[in-house]
Amino acid sequence: MTARIFTSALFAGLVAGLIAVLLQWSLMENLILEGEEYETGNKSHFGGVLVINDALEAAGEPTAVEAEEPEDLFSRFSLAFFAVFVTFVGWALMMVAGFAMAERVGQRIRVKDALLWGIAGFAAIHIMPGIGLPPELPGTPAADLEERQLWWLTTALFSILAFALMAYGRKPIYIIIGIALLIAPHIIGAPHMDGYAGVAPPDLAGEYVARSYAVAFIDWVVLGLAAGYFWNRGAVSKAA
Amino acid sequence: MTTLTNTRTDAAVDTGVLPIVAAIAAGVFLIYFTGFAQASQYHDSAHDTRHTLAFPCH
Prior knowledge:
Largest sheet of chain A: 2 strands, antiparallel
Largest sheet of chain B: none
Mean pLDDT of chain A: 90
Low-confidence stretches of chain A: none
Order of helices and strands of chain B: HHHH
Distance between the termini of chain B: 49 Å
Number of helices of chain A: 7
Shape of chain B: elongated
Strand order of the largest sheet of chain A: 1-2
Radius of gyration of chain B: 19 Å
Oligomer: heterodimer
Number of strands of chain B: 0
Helix content of chain B: over 70%
Mean pLDDT of chain B: 81
Radius of gyration of chain A: 21 Å
Structural class of chain B: mainly alpha
Strand content of chain B: under 5%
Helix content of chain A: over 70%
Protein backbone atom coordinates (compact mmCIF):
# COMPACT_ATOMS: atom_id res chain seq x y z
CA MET A 1 0.00 0.00 0.00
CA THR A 2 2.80 2.40 0.89
CA ALA A 3 4.52 1.78 -2.44
CA ARG A 4 1.26 2.10 -4.34
CA ILE A 5 0.49 5.49 -2.74
CA PHE A 6 3.94 6.96 -3.20
CA THR A 7 4.65 5.68 -6.71
CA SER A 8 1.27 6.67 -8.13
CA ALA A 9 1.55 10.11 -6.48
CA LEU A 10 5.04 10.58 -7.87
CA PHE A 11 4.04 9.66 -11.43
CA ALA A 12 0.85 11.73 -11.30
CA GLY A 13 2.75 14.71 -9.90
CA LEU A 14 5.34 14.45 -12.66
CA VAL A 15 2.71 14.27 -15.41
CA ALA A 16 0.70 17.19 -14.00
CA GLY A 17 3.92 19.10 -13.27
CA LEU A 18 5.04 18.71 -16.88
CA ILE A 19 1.80 20.18 -18.19
CA ALA A 20 1.88 22.87 -15.49
CA VAL A 21 5.39 24.00 -16.25
CA LEU A 22 4.73 24.15 -20.00
CA LEU A 23 1.62 26.27 -19.38
CA GLN A 24 3.48 28.49 -16.92
CA TRP A 25 6.30 29.11 -19.37
CA SER A 26 4.08 29.71 -22.36
CA LEU A 27 1.17 31.63 -20.84
CA MET A 28 2.25 33.14 -17.52
CA GLU A 29 5.92 34.11 -17.56
CA ASN A 30 5.53 36.76 -20.24
CA LEU A 31 2.77 38.45 -18.23
CA ILE A 32 4.81 38.16 -15.00
CA LEU A 33 7.80 39.81 -16.69
CA GLU A 34 5.55 42.50 -18.15
CA GLY A 35 4.05 43.11 -14.70
CA GLU A 36 7.54 43.51 -13.27
CA GLU A 37 8.26 46.23 -15.82
CA TYR A 38 5.61 48.24 -13.98
CA GLU A 39 6.62 47.00 -10.53
CA THR A 40 10.18 48.22 -11.05
CA GLY A 41 9.12 51.50 -12.63
CA ASN A 42 10.58 50.79 -16.07
CA LYS A 43 7.10 51.35 -17.44
CA SER A 44 4.12 53.27 -16.17
CA HIS A 45 0.67 53.75 -17.57
CA PHE A 46 -0.95 56.67 -15.79
CA GLY A 47 -4.02 58.11 -17.44
CA GLY A 48 -4.16 55.20 -19.85
CA VAL A 49 -0.90 56.35 -21.46
CA LEU A 50 2.05 53.97 -21.58
CA VAL A 51 5.28 55.65 -20.51
CA ILE A 52 8.56 53.85 -20.96
CA ASN A 53 10.84 55.58 -18.53
CA ASP A 54 13.95 55.92 -20.66
CA ALA A 55 13.99 59.65 -20.02
CA LEU A 56 15.14 59.03 -16.47
CA GLU A 57 18.03 56.99 -17.74
CA ALA A 58 19.02 59.67 -20.24
CA ALA A 59 18.98 62.26 -17.47
CA GLY A 60 21.48 60.16 -15.53
CA GLU A 61 19.06 59.11 -12.80
CA PRO A 62 19.42 55.54 -11.53
CA THR A 63 16.73 53.31 -12.94
CA ALA A 64 15.06 50.92 -10.56
CA VAL A 65 16.09 47.61 -12.06
CA GLU A 66 17.82 46.63 -15.28
CA ALA A 67 16.11 44.25 -17.68
CA GLU A 68 17.11 40.67 -16.93
CA GLU A 69 19.90 39.07 -18.91
CA PRO A 70 19.04 35.90 -20.86
CA GLU A 71 21.09 33.71 -18.48
CA ASP A 72 19.16 35.15 -15.51
CA LEU A 73 15.94 34.27 -17.27
CA PHE A 74 17.25 30.77 -17.93
CA SER A 75 18.00 30.16 -14.26
CA ARG A 76 14.69 31.76 -13.31
CA PHE A 77 12.73 29.49 -15.66
CA SER A 78 14.72 26.46 -14.45
CA LEU A 79 13.87 27.25 -10.84
CA ALA A 80 10.21 27.57 -11.85
CA PHE A 81 10.52 24.13 -13.42
CA PHE A 82 11.56 22.55 -10.10
CA ALA A 83 9.08 24.55 -8.04
CA VAL A 84 6.19 23.43 -10.25
CA PHE A 85 7.18 19.75 -10.10
CA VAL A 86 7.63 19.81 -6.32
CA THR A 87 4.26 21.55 -5.93
CA PHE A 88 2.36 19.04 -8.02
CA VAL A 89 4.05 16.02 -6.45
CA GLY A 90 2.93 17.55 -3.13
CA TRP A 91 -0.69 17.92 -4.25
CA ALA A 92 -0.58 14.43 -5.80
CA LEU A 93 0.59 12.89 -2.50
CA MET A 94 -2.37 14.44 -0.70
CA MET A 95 -4.85 13.45 -3.41
CA VAL A 96 -3.66 9.84 -3.57
CA ALA A 97 -3.68 9.65 0.24
CA GLY A 98 -7.32 10.69 -0.12
CA PHE A 99 -7.90 7.84 -2.62
CA ALA A 100 -6.44 5.41 -0.08
CA MET A 101 -8.69 6.82 2.65
CA ALA A 102 -11.72 6.49 0.38
CA GLU A 103 -10.77 2.90 -0.38
CA ARG A 104 -10.56 2.12 3.32
CA VAL A 105 -14.20 3.11 3.69
CA GLY A 106 -15.21 1.05 0.67
CA GLN A 107 -15.19 3.68 -2.09
CA ARG A 108 -13.32 2.52 -5.14
CA ILE A 109 -11.75 5.46 -7.03
CA ARG A 110 -11.88 4.95 -10.78
CA VAL A 111 -10.34 7.35 -13.28
CA LYS A 112 -13.65 9.15 -13.75
CA ASP A 113 -13.94 9.61 -9.97
CA ALA A 114 -10.38 10.90 -9.90
CA LEU A 115 -11.28 13.46 -12.57
CA LEU A 116 -13.96 14.79 -10.22
CA TRP A 117 -11.37 14.87 -7.42
CA GLY A 118 -9.15 16.98 -9.68
CA ILE A 119 -11.97 19.42 -10.42
CA ALA A 120 -12.83 19.54 -6.70
CA GLY A 121 -9.15 20.19 -5.95
CA PHE A 122 -9.18 23.11 -8.37
CA ALA A 123 -12.29 24.46 -6.68
CA ALA A 124 -10.87 24.00 -3.16
CA ILE A 125 -7.39 25.35 -3.90
CA HIS A 126 -8.19 28.06 -6.46
CA ILE A 127 -11.87 29.01 -6.72
CA MET A 128 -12.76 29.20 -3.02
CA PRO A 129 -9.59 30.94 -1.73
CA GLY A 130 -9.68 33.10 -4.89
CA ILE A 131 -12.97 34.67 -3.80
CA GLY A 132 -11.07 36.49 -1.07
CA LEU A 133 -7.54 36.41 -2.42
CA PRO A 134 -7.55 36.42 -6.22
CA PRO A 135 -4.36 35.62 -8.16
CA GLU A 136 -2.08 38.64 -8.18
CA LEU A 137 0.24 39.98 -10.81
CA PRO A 138 3.68 40.59 -9.22
CA GLY A 139 3.83 44.13 -7.89
CA THR A 140 0.26 44.23 -6.66
CA PRO A 141 0.37 45.55 -3.07
CA ALA A 142 -1.67 43.45 -0.65
CA ALA A 143 -2.41 43.00 3.05
CA ASP A 144 -0.04 41.39 5.58
CA LEU A 145 1.41 38.18 4.12
CA GLU A 146 1.04 35.95 7.18
CA GLU A 147 -2.58 36.90 7.66
CA ARG A 148 -3.29 36.15 4.00
CA GLN A 149 -1.49 32.81 4.19
CA LEU A 150 -3.49 31.85 7.28
CA TRP A 151 -6.80 32.79 5.64
CA TRP A 152 -5.83 31.02 2.42
CA LEU A 153 -4.87 27.80 4.28
CA THR A 154 -8.04 27.84 6.37
CA THR A 155 -10.23 28.39 3.34
CA ALA A 156 -8.52 25.67 1.29
CA LEU A 157 -8.70 23.17 4.17
CA PHE A 158 -12.35 23.92 4.97
CA SER A 159 -13.24 23.66 1.27
CA ILE A 160 -11.50 20.28 0.89
CA LEU A 161 -13.33 18.97 3.97
CA ALA A 162 -16.61 20.38 2.69
CA PHE A 163 -16.33 18.73 -0.73
CA ALA A 164 -15.32 15.42 0.86
CA LEU A 165 -18.28 15.48 3.25
CA MET A 166 -20.72 16.51 0.53
CA ALA A 167 -19.48 13.85 -1.90
CA TYR A 168 -19.02 10.93 0.50
CA GLY A 169 -21.13 11.72 3.56
CA ARG A 170 -24.16 9.45 3.72
CA LYS A 171 -26.53 11.67 5.63
CA PRO A 172 -28.11 15.00 4.65
CA ILE A 173 -26.48 16.62 7.68
CA TYR A 174 -23.11 16.33 5.92
CA ILE A 175 -24.38 18.52 3.09
CA ILE A 176 -25.35 21.17 5.64
CA ILE A 177 -21.98 20.93 7.43
CA GLY A 178 -20.27 21.13 4.04
CA ILE A 179 -22.11 24.29 3.05
CA ALA A 180 -21.27 25.84 6.43
CA LEU A 181 -17.58 24.99 5.96
CA LEU A 182 -17.62 26.50 2.46
CA ILE A 183 -19.21 29.74 3.61
CA ALA A 184 -17.51 30.31 7.00
CA PRO A 185 -14.15 31.71 5.80
CA HIS A 186 -15.95 34.18 3.54
CA ILE A 187 -18.12 35.44 6.38
CA ILE A 188 -14.93 36.13 8.34
CA GLY A 189 -13.46 37.62 5.18
CA ALA A 190 -9.94 37.69 3.74
CA PRO A 191 -7.45 40.31 4.93
CA HIS A 192 -7.54 43.26 2.56
CA MET A 193 -5.97 46.65 2.19
CA ASP A 194 -8.21 49.69 2.33
CA GLY A 195 -7.75 50.61 -1.30
CA TYR A 196 -6.22 49.42 -4.55
CA ALA A 197 -2.64 50.31 -5.30
CA GLY A 198 -1.65 48.09 -8.23
CA VAL A 199 0.80 49.79 -10.58
CA ALA A 200 0.21 47.61 -13.65
CA PRO A 201 -2.56 48.36 -16.17
CA PRO A 202 -5.87 46.81 -15.08
CA ASP A 203 -6.16 45.05 -18.44
CA LEU A 204 -2.82 43.33 -17.87
CA ALA A 205 -3.86 42.29 -14.35
CA GLY A 206 -7.21 41.03 -15.70
CA GLU A 207 -5.54 38.96 -18.41
CA TYR A 208 -3.19 37.56 -15.79
CA VAL A 209 -6.00 36.48 -13.46
CA ALA A 210 -8.00 34.86 -16.26
CA ARG A 211 -4.99 32.89 -17.45
CA SER A 212 -4.03 31.90 -13.92
CA TYR A 213 -7.42 30.26 -13.41
CA ALA A 214 -7.35 28.58 -16.82
CA VAL A 215 -3.85 27.21 -16.24
CA ALA A 216 -4.75 25.98 -12.75
CA PHE A 217 -7.89 24.29 -14.05
CA ILE A 218 -6.01 22.38 -16.74
CA ASP A 219 -3.25 21.46 -14.24
CA TRP A 220 -5.78 20.04 -11.77
CA VAL A 221 -7.79 18.12 -14.37
CA VAL A 222 -4.55 16.51 -15.56
CA LEU A 223 -3.53 15.82 -11.96
CA GLY A 224 -6.84 14.11 -11.21
CA LEU A 225 -6.80 11.99 -14.36
CA ALA A 226 -3.14 11.02 -13.93
CA ALA A 227 -3.57 10.21 -10.23
CA GLY A 228 -6.61 8.06 -11.01
CA TYR A 229 -4.80 6.28 -13.82
CA PHE A 230 -1.66 5.44 -11.82
CA TRP A 231 -3.68 4.55 -8.72
CA ASN A 232 -5.71 2.00 -10.65
CA ARG A 233 -2.66 0.71 -12.45
CA GLY A 234 -1.11 0.05 -9.06
CA ALA A 235 -4.22 -1.94 -8.09
CA VAL A 236 -4.00 -4.06 -11.24
CA SER A 237 -0.31 -4.86 -10.90
CA LYS A 238 -0.86 -5.75 -7.25
CA ALA A 239 -3.65 -8.16 -8.16
CA ALA A 240 -1.57 -9.78 -10.91
CA MET B 1 -22.44 -0.89 -6.99
CA THR B 2 -22.84 -3.22 -4.02
CA THR B 3 -20.79 -5.96 -5.63
CA LEU B 4 -17.90 -3.53 -6.14
CA THR B 5 -17.88 -2.39 -2.55
CA ASN B 6 -17.68 -5.99 -1.40
CA THR B 7 -14.51 -6.76 -3.34
CA ARG B 8 -12.35 -4.53 -1.21
CA THR B 9 -11.97 -6.80 1.81
CA ASP B 10 -8.39 -7.84 1.10
CA ALA B 11 -7.34 -4.23 0.60
CA ALA B 12 -8.85 -3.23 3.93
CA VAL B 13 -6.86 -5.84 5.82
CA ASP B 14 -3.39 -4.71 4.80
CA THR B 15 -4.16 -1.02 4.47
CA GLY B 16 -2.68 0.75 7.44
CA VAL B 17 -3.36 4.35 8.30
CA LEU B 18 0.36 5.03 8.56
CA PRO B 19 1.16 5.27 4.82
CA ILE B 20 -1.80 7.61 4.35
CA VAL B 21 -0.61 9.88 7.14
CA ALA B 22 2.95 9.71 5.78
CA ALA B 23 1.79 10.69 2.27
CA ILE B 24 -0.22 13.63 3.56
CA ALA B 25 2.71 14.77 5.72
CA ALA B 26 5.08 14.52 2.75
CA GLY B 27 2.65 16.49 0.58
CA VAL B 28 2.24 19.22 3.21
CA PHE B 29 6.01 19.39 3.60
CA LEU B 30 6.55 19.93 -0.16
CA ILE B 31 3.74 22.49 -0.51
CA TYR B 32 5.11 24.36 2.51
CA PHE B 33 8.42 24.95 0.77
CA THR B 34 7.07 25.84 -2.66
CA GLY B 35 4.04 27.81 -1.51
CA PHE B 36 4.61 29.27 1.93
CA ALA B 37 8.17 29.31 3.28
CA GLN B 38 9.32 32.90 3.51
CA ALA B 39 13.10 32.37 3.65
CA SER B 40 14.35 34.26 0.63
CA GLN B 41 15.91 31.29 -1.17
CA TYR B 42 12.57 29.46 -1.17
CA HIS B 43 10.62 32.58 -2.03
CA ASP B 44 12.88 33.57 -4.90
CA SER B 45 13.06 30.07 -6.38
CA ALA B 46 9.32 29.59 -6.27
CA HIS B 47 8.30 33.19 -6.94
CA ASP B 48 6.86 32.83 -10.45
CA THR B 49 5.19 29.55 -9.54
CA ARG B 50 3.60 31.06 -6.44
CA HIS B 51 2.15 33.84 -8.55
CA THR B 52 0.99 31.53 -11.32
CA LEU B 53 -0.71 29.18 -8.86
CA ALA B 54 -2.12 32.04 -6.76
CA PHE B 55 -0.42 31.23 -3.45
CA PRO B 56 -0.38 34.39 -1.30
CA CYS B 57 2.93 36.08 -2.15
CA HIS B 58 4.89 39.21 -1.08
